[in-house]
Amino acid sequence: MEIKTVNQIWSSDITYIPMRRGFMYLAAVIDWRSRYVLVWKLSNTMESEFCVSALNQALKTGTPQVFNTDQGA
């Protein structure tokens, strides 16, 4: 699939950041065409609310044709 325009495809992922006592979790939404990080959120828990909040904030800037996540663990 050729990516021709901004807001055509967005992607989201979560990663963890090791800290002295535990982890912080980073969720980000990126536009594949511009490679611009639309929004990112940090949380000290792995609950879904911060991911949903990140997506809702990103949707205020536009609406993608495709939204991709790896749907990992």
UniProtKB/TrEMBL annotation:
PROSITE patterns noted in UniProt: INTEGRASE
Protein name as it appears in the record: Integrase catalytic region
InterPro entries linked: Integrase_cat-core (IPR001584), RNaseH-like_sf (IPR012337), RNaseH_sf (IPR036397), Transposase_IS3/IS150/IS904 (IPR050900)
Any Gene Ontology biological process: DNA integration
Domain Integrase catalytic: 1-73
Superkingdom assignment: Bacteria
Residue stretches spanning the membrane: none
